[in-house]
Amino acid sequence: MAGTILDKIDSQCRDVIRRHSTNCPVLLGRLAAELGVTIRIARLERRISGQISREDEKYIIRVNRYEVRERQRFTIAHELAHYLLHRHVIDASPRGIRDNVLYRSGAPRIVEYQANRLAAEIIMPRELLIRKLGSNGQRVDEKKTERLAAEFQVSPLAMKMRLETILGI
Ligand SMILES: [Zn+2]
Predict the structure, then answer these.
(1) Model confidence, pTM
(2) Are 50 and 64 a contacting pair, CB within 8 Å?
């Protein structure tokens, strides 16, 4: 089987993610706590969705309190992905990584691309999603996409993109 973005992270963290990949919605708060990351719902500037920074020895994710819950969940997964993949980038700046509403932070595009891929993997785990799709997996209409989005607590657009990746459509 082809490698996934999960292969890029250390095996201990991967095990934590796997343990949280069996039921939906994925419990991001618990996952973050097990990874040693603190989540705060914060008053961020309007165009900023989230950020992750290192404060003393702790890593803290701040997510914009004014955005909808599904969006906040994806942002948390995106920032966790930065923590897992790009700690050196976070550590290199006192402000850490700050993502705007397009998940652009000023870091190289590959960094944001990887974070989005890992975020999708964390919040919509491939095997769990395939199981939920059932035997008629190839026939996914708008209604089914919306139902799955609600089940995984993500936006219908995020689910649509994830299904396109997984099903190759
Ligand atoms: Zn980012």
Answers:
(1) 0.94
(2) yes
CA of 139 to the centre of ligand 1 (A): 32
Residue 5 tokens read as 């973005």
The CA 138 to ligand 1 mean position distance, Å, reads 31
For residue 143, what are the CA distances in angstroms to 14, 69, 146, 147, 153? 32, 20, 5, 6, 15
Tell me the per-residue pLDDT of 99-109, one tens digit each, with 9 for 90 and over: 999 999 999 99
**What is the Å distance from ligand 1's center to 115 Cα?**
6
pLDDT digits (tens, 9 = 90+) for 110-137: 999 999 999 999 999 999 999 998 876 5
CATH of 5-124, one of 1.10.10, 1.10.1660, 3.90.950, 1.10.3470: 1.10.10
What's the gap in Å between 118 CA and the centre of ligand 1?
A: 11
The DSSP 8-state label assigned to residue 96 in this structure reads -
Ligand 1 geometric centre to CA of 134 (Å): 32
25-55: pLDDT as tens digits: 999 999 999 999 999 999 999 999 999 999 9
